[in-house]
Amino acid sequence: MTNGSTLTESSLTNMSTGGTITQGWYVPLASNDKVLASSDVFNSIVLFTTFTPVTAAVCGTGGGDAKLYAINMSTGDAALDLTTGAVLAAGQSALAAAKAIGTGIPSKPIIIMSQSGNRATPYVITGTTNQQISNTQIPQVTVRRLVGWREVF
After folding, report:
1. Cβ atoms within 10 A of the Cβ of 108, count?
2. Cβ(101)–Cβ(67) under 8 Å?
3. How would DSSP label each residue in 30-42?
4. 8 CB neighbour count, 10 Å cutoff
5. What is the mean pLDDT of residues 81-94?
6. Of the listed ranges 12-21, 77-86, 93-102, 128-137, the one predicted with least confidence
7. Closest Cα to residue 42, out of 98, 124, 152, 99?
8. In Å, what is the CA distance from 131 to each residue of 52, 53, 55, 107, 123?
9. The model's pTM
């Protein structure tokens, strides 16, 4: 790809079939899966939710299933086992590693941190229109603190 040229789906790597990533990657969802909320990136992991309606034409509270995904932003592979919070080895399917988080239309994933000393335990919080809250722990991170700074003019 040259500067100013259009990036198309054919120039990206389909991560369901694998291959070498040159321009970027994508993960094709099932034909009835929908991403209805924005994603979040934390510690090089793209976190997003999907909604799979139970029927094609339903209005109301959003009958269907909600899932949470965690994808390594550099490789397009599954980043975490969202059931245990463990980091996954490279090459694992992001679709297979998704976590069911309830029924109804899911919210955007929100990251909160619980700190103890210089370690912080991050959690991914999501909710659904059926008032189900999902709380998923992800691997701990080291907290860095700004002690001071000096302005130079």
Report:
1. 15
2. yes
3. PTT-B--S--EEE
4. 9
5. 86
6. 12-21
7. 124
8. 17, 16, 20, 11, 18
9. 0.82
